[in-house]
Amino acid sequence: MKEHNKPMYTDLKLPLTSQEETPPSRKSLFCVPGASSYGSLWRLVHWGPLTALFIIFYICIMGVYVNLQWWPISSIYGALHQTLYFYWLFLILYNIIAASVIGPGFVPRNWRPLRPEDEQFLQYCKFCEGFKAPRSHHCRQCNRCVMKMDHHCPWINTCCGHYNHAKFVYFLFFAPIGCVHSLIILICACYRALHAPYYMHYGKGEEPIVILGVYSFIASMFAIGLALGVVVSVGCLCIIQMKSIVKNETGIENWINDKAYYRDRDGDGDGDGDGDGDGDGDGDETEEFIYPYHIGRWRNLFQVFTWSGLPKSNGIIWDVRSDCHQYTLTIEQIKQKQDKRDRSVEVLIAMSYRGSIFPISFGFKVCCCPPCSDESRIKLNQGDRVVVTRWKKHWLYGDKVLNEEELIKTKRIRGWFPRKSATELYYNGRPQCPTNHSEAKKSN
């Protein structure tokens, strides 16, 4: 990045409009006023946490049921073994509940930096009516700007972000360990149950006998399947999260970095950044994006995992590389947003769409090729206009141009809708490729 565009904010104070607060303590986790994302246990009353808790307790109960036959607690080793088994359960439950109840930390509503001149480096959130702090993103499900947002996790019914990241990763770490322990117990117990007649007739009489009926055997096999699924899926997610922490990079920031690498910085279309269009990179433009939060693997780890259990940052100010500043990433985001707006195409809706997931009236291919995204569909009426920023072969994504009546009810409506519902596309006032599927395929 050019030097005159890279102010070195090494003396940047806590950018709040109110007085500065003391560093976080155990009594006050959220040191930024209005940043608390604490929820009650009612946050667990949702299909995601309830499903996760059901799987945890089901595997645990079946493990205890067969373990009491295979290794009774009447012996000291059996008691220690059962204690270890319940210890895994405690760690799993504590961390998943803590990750859900503590929450990720929210940027205070109406937040703005202490110095007005810094507002040019930040994005404005229409929903929270304030500026997005560095590394924060607005979550549609939480309806708040989330500090260091990684993703919205349905299993904890909130986002994985700054304040609950460590608890979430601990849960991802201990859940596979506990399930591996359960797998060993269940598989060995089922084996002994299948060969119980052999041990009864030919055994030495010292072998533990496990008796399982038809239903209990089926239930045990189902528990084995669930435990195996948890080990594979949650274990892989734990590896992904650890890689992100080592790089001090969230999933969203990884996407921003990828776009920064391929972004056309000079507008000539070759992507080399020199502005001459020949692709050799020998021009005068030397701007290069440097990810500011990768400060070394060990330091990255201790940004999340600390002895106090509290993350190092307050969610507003972050440790950055010496050759970067607090707004290095946000400036790149603003440029990417501007490129996105420059590529946008305005769509005129010719056929109404009611927001159905399977709009059979638009054809079988539209139903069979939905966008692979959890983003919503939007209802559109004939004559509506939508500013399209993403497109697939059969679907378009964009922001609806709101009229005055709609602006009173909401600030933004965006989502997916069938390409066939749009017959005219406008770019800079000129019609562009009306629902041309072949050209859309080339653009993707």
Strand content: 5-15%
Helix content: 25-40%
The number of helical segments is: 11
Main beta sheet strand tally, sense and closure: 6 strands, antiparallel
| Mean pLDDT value | 84
**What structural class should be given to the helix and strand makeup?**
alpha+beta
**Order of secondary-structure elements:** HHEEEEEEHHHHHHEHEEHEEEH
| Intertermini distance | 29 Å
- Multimeric status of the protein: single chain
Radius of gyration: 27 Å
Shape: globular
Low-confidence stretches: 1-27, 275-285, 433-444
Number of strands: 12
Main-sheet strand order equals 10-9-8-7-11-12
Protein architecture, described:
- Helix 1 packs across helix 5 (214-247).
- Strands 10-9-8-7-11-12 form a six-stranded antiparallel β-sheet, covered by helices on one side. A two-stranded antiparallel sheet has the order 1-2.
- Mean pLDDT is 84; it is low at 1-27, 275-285 and 433-444.
- It has 444 residues and is of the alpha+beta class.
- Helices cover 40% and strands 11% of the residues.
- Strand 5 (151-153) and strand 6 form a beta hairpin.
- The longest helix is centred in the middle third of the chain and has 34 residues, at 214-247.
- The chain has helices at 47-70, 76-102, 165-194, 196-202, 214-247, 251-262, 297-304, 328-343, 364-368, 404-409, 437-443; strands at residues 124-125, 130-131, 137-139, 144-146, 151-153, 158-160, 345-349, 385-391, 395-400, 414-418, 422-427, 430-431.
- It contains eleven helices and twelve strands.
